Amino acid sequence: FGLSKISDFMPEDAQTISKGCIRAKSGTVIEDSGVREEIDRALIRQFDLLPVARKMVMEELANGQQN
């Protein structure tokens, strides 16, 4: 297994974080809080998935009209 390309990440950039710190900041995202939608939108933009997301929505709309 190898990396497909060189990245800007350097080993000296890594930091060790205690488990307690992670536990203090983690939790559950309430479904109707709007946070999930914001995360989805951010990921779609970050990974340039807008054409894929648009296609998925159009397929769901077409399936809804067929049923």
UniProtKB/TrEMBL annotation:
This is Toxin-antitoxin system, toxin component, MazF family.
